[in-house]
Amino acid sequence: MAWSLIHAGWMHLLLALINAHDWTMRYVTTFSTEVFSLLNSIIYFHKAIQELQRAHDNLSFAAFLYAIIGSIGTTLVAIFLSTAEKWKSLLHPYIRMGLTEYAAAISIIIFIGMPHVGELASLDRSTLHVSTSFKPSSPDRTQFFVQFWHLPVGWIFAAIIPGFIITVLFFFDHEVSSIICTIDRYGTRKPTGFAWDIVLLGMTTALCGILGIPPANGLLPQAPLHSESLMHTEKEEILISVDGEEKVEHRNVRRVHEQRWSAFLHAGAILVFVSPPFQHVLGLTPTSVLAGLFMFMGEQSLSVNPILYRFFYLLTPPSELPKLPAEIKSYRGVHAYTLVQIVITIVIFVVTLTIAAPVFPVLIIILVPIRLLLMNRLWDRKVLRFVDAWACRKGSPEDDKDLLAGEVDEKTGAAPRLPDETIGDV
Fold this sequence. Notes:
The chain is mainly alpha-helical. The chain is about 55% helix and about 5% strand. It has helices at about 1-15, 20-25, 30-60, 60-80, 95-100, 105-115, 155-160, 160-180, 195-210, 220-230, 260-275, 280, 285-305, 305-315, 330-350, 360-380, 380-385, 395-405; strands at about 230-240, 245-255.
């Protein structure tokens, strides 16, 4: 594992040096990013179920029933508090904002303390395993650093293959999550730093290999949740023309408060809580609360995925469906597109449960040529323009083809397209 992560580290640095974002993600559409986001949601829900299964195997029946209550309670309280900003007639706005931003943390604290109250204190419970001393947790290791230089040369080169797979997974995960948390609805102004992000990710991945610990990466849905928590309303001056006269109009717009402090404080808090004696505090966390956190994160990721909205269209009577653009005759193509996304996600998830799990990032990458080379032959291009778009730039693959064919609107330079709001926010 050490050499696999070391190889992944220098591969990340290479991707950053050649600015891989510009010539790889430019071909990625929301078809692939939505599937990847849905896959992450399913994996979070599955992890929650696994935690409850362990509780069933290790706890008494009464403790197991409370574990279910604790996990669902953690999820529901977090979801409830995350809507606090909409409680317009209750509490001070800053209090509502704090409840919204720290909904998950507040819910976790409540259900960490709950098992210590009253008769619940007599129940057995399973908590997170933490280290009680500053030394490797594995009894087979006496030092923090892995002696990776003792591995035979043949195995060092063989480790390039899993290193490549890890690189593909990390790169795609980081790029997709970075794209999602900087989309137009967040109103970001400062330029993105994809290459620097990949440099940092490569260095931490290699360091994890040297230390013999699992690499830490997985920004869905944490990064979009971070962006959501930083949303605020501000007034913006817009120059408009009325009857030939230019006037300044003030509008309230929602955008992200762009700063570095929140990310820095998050990282600092993580560093503090992985160090004694604060690890003891983490050790008080029941695994049922962890399961609830997984369910909350899965729900938050799923709730903003357009696949969910289009899945609801499948269950909606035709008379109640939103109107389609005039050039699209029916919802059949939209429904078929949605079902294909769901089936592909389920297939990839099943693969992650088998011995072939390490190759699933490659399956995600394969979706890109499938969308560009195959799906445009099976679906009407107007349907694809309606449901899909480039992930990192304006327009869609169909717009680009229309541009080449000279079929774009002469004024806008793009083919007609329904507003994004009709298919949900990414």
